[in-house]
Design brief:
The chain has eight helices and seven strands, in the order ααααααβαββββββα. With about 250 residues, the protein is of the alpha+beta class. The chain starts with a helix and ends in a 5-residue tail after the last helix.
Length: about 250
């Protein structure tokens, strides 16, 4: 039975609210405690179940009406100053309404949960010394190994000529799905590249969480997430290489 304080830390960890120092300490506790990991998975399952049945509503008609009214051409008034102020007010209202709609529809919790899953997988693999299930720098060995265990064939490339050595790969479970994880090494830094099919284009994003950098990109129907303590610039170099070679041969 976990304590009330541990439950509080679990909630904070799940929401990505722990600072880097406390986050790493808690991840070490997770790696050492099967009970704690089971509690975390249970909380994630409860969160997913709640989202599955929760009600989501479209924006109220009153908000839509205000946006429509603000978008109408500003009526002519006497004087340049009056016309400018009317136009500025309309633009400000449209901008505020756009922000309101964005906040209404966006669900940042899902992004936080996926990021927490990715970080947990990276840290767990590092602490357990189980970085890969197949150890090979040969893409023609790694790719068939992954294809035999997943319902898709992920692109695999060795970028050793650019300073990123392919160590191998593993299959993991993040975001409610089985995914391929390519493992690269840059000097003493390990980079996990999580990838799975996703036909929806997504902009490239970079964030820092719990002392790790996370970079995401979408290319050729595949979604990539790079997780490492490598600095942002070099992690971005690998992201660009992946984007350029994303298409599976």
């Amino acid at each position: 039975m976990i304590s009330e304080e541990t439950a509080r830390l679990l909630n904070a960890y799940l929401d990505g609210e722990l600072d880097p120092v406390n986050g790493r300490e808690f991840e070490a506790q997770l790696a050492a405690s099967a009970e704690l990991r089971a509690a975390l998975e249970s909380m994630r399952g409860q969160s997913a179940a709640i989202r599955a049945v929760a009600d989501y509503h479209v924006a109220p008609e009153s908000l839509r009406a205000r946006i429509g009214a603000a978008a109408q051409p500003v009526e002519r008034v006497r004087g340049v100053r009056a016309r400018w102020w009317r136009g500025a007010a309309a633009l400000a209202l449209v901008a505020l309404a756009s922000v309101a709609l964005t906040l209404w529809f966006v669900r940042p919790g899902a992004d936080r949960e996926l990021t927490a899953d990715l970080l947990a997988s990276h840290v767990r693999a590092t602490l357990d010394q189980r970085l890969y299930d197949v150890a090979s720098s040969d893409q023609h060995t790694v790719k068939p190994w992954l294809s035999a265990r997943l319902p898709y064939s992920p692109p695999v490339n060795d970028f050793s000529g650019h300073g990123f050595d392919l160590l191998g790969a593993r299959v993991d479970f993040v975001g409610g799905r089985q995914v391929a994880v390519l493992v690269y090494k840059r000097r003493q830094h390990v980079v996990d590249v999580f990838l799975w099919p996703d036909p929806t284009p997504a902009p490239r994003r970079t964030l820092t969480r719990e002392g790790f950098n996370v970079e995401s990109l979408s290319r050729d129907g595949m979604r990539f997430f790079l997780v490492s303590d490598l600095n942002r610039n070099e992690l971005g170099d690998l992201a660009r290489l992946l984007a350029a070679h994303a298409a599976a041969p």
